[in-house]
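We keep the chain:
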Amino acid sequence: MITARASRQAGAEHEHRLIYEGLCESLTLAKKLGVPPEKMFELIEASMIRSGVAEYKKPFILTQIILPTSRSSSCTKTCT
């Protein structure tokens, strides 16, 4: 039986994963269009899509340090 706490935790993990995947996709598209990642993060930080996930991942993405924190490696491959 799934408890309410476990359900909320699973929901939060899923939400963070979706935010991270969206961040990776937006950075990939920006890179293909010639927009530097620094400029993309400026836009993200000044808009409604700003999130703690983006703020946390920013230094790692900008320096291209790969952190094995996700069960899925697809995001890591996309962002680099």
